[in-house]
Amino acid sequence: MADDPEQKLKELSISLNDVSKPIASYVNCVQTGDLLFLSGKGPRKSDDTYVTGKVGEDLTIEHGYDAARLVAIEHIAVLKDELGDLNKVKRIVKVLGMVNCTSDFVDQAKVINGYSDLMVSVFGEKGRHARSAVSMHTLPLNLAVEVEVIVEVED
């Protein structure tokens, strides 16, 4: 398959972590029809710690970008767990990226590009999506970023 996301992950030397358990009263994913709604995830590192802090104070734009990229990897792991095969993804539809940042920080889009760029790298044109990138005064666990996503899948 020309745009095989499983192969792309190998080419990018990305290995997926086990899916993290929700930290409160929700589930990682809900399917309705051909849409998957993935709950917000944070930037979990391979040692099971999270990237925390405020972008613009504790973290640079580049740190935020890398954190958002980690969230994309988390969501890809959820998709793999849910679908068994990433080739069942028809389209990354809508992304909501939330950045824990200072009140004067205005480059949320540059931070969430870490998420978007990886989705396009892995899923090709199917990874291009509508998106919002917004600032938050704070996020759970002081996460640097949190992202939620809607994904269209094959029936």
UniProtKB/TrEMBL annotation:
<dbReference type="InterPro" id="IPR035959">
    <property type="entry name" value="RutC-like_sf"/>
</dbReference>
<protein>
    <submittedName>
        <fullName>Enamine deaminase RidA, house cleaning of reactive enamine intermediates, YjgF/YER057c/UK114 family</fullName>
    </submittedName>
</protein>
<dbReference type="Pfam" id="PF14588">
    <property type="entry name" value="YjgF_endoribonc"/>
</dbReference>
<feature type="domain" description="Endoribonuclease L-PSP/chorismate mutase-like">
    <location>
        <begin position="9"/>
        <end position="150"/>
    </location>
</feature>
<dbReference type="InterPro" id="IPR013813">
    <property type="entry name" value="Endoribo_LPSP/chorism_mut-like"/>
</dbReference>
